Amino acid sequence: QVQLVESGGGLVQAGGSLRLSCAASRRTFSGYAMAWFRQAPGKEREFVAAISWSGGSTSYADSVQGRFSISRDNAKNTVLLQMNRLKPEDTAVYYCSQARGPYYAGTGSVDYWGQGTQVTVSS
Known about the structure:
Elements: E1 4-7, E2 10-13, E3 18-24, E4 34-39, E5 46-51, E6 58-60, E7 68-73, E8 78-83, E9 92-99, E10 110-113, E11 117-122
Parallel strand pairs: 2-11
Antiparallel strand pairs: 1-3, 3-8, 4-5, 4-9, 5-6, 7-8, 9-10, 9-11
């Protein structure tokens, strides 16, 4: 079993920045792709960003491309999501997830989820 614990959420004004962190308990963290998702009230959970096992490959949703950046530190079993130029529509619960392989291959490839952290962007 893998435990994923998110932190770093909070309330920020539009245009501001937040950095989310996800700590994983898995000893073999470095062998698996990681991804961030979010879910706004009344909406389905949606993909935000993903990073491959080595960090060499990343992908982003169109809505956050150029504003968000995903990174990982395999020595610390941690994945980060740097969110800049935040907009009110970024308000959601953000979830960290771990894929079952070295590369993210869609929501169906996710094996583990964190509990989520709330991000609220005021206008």
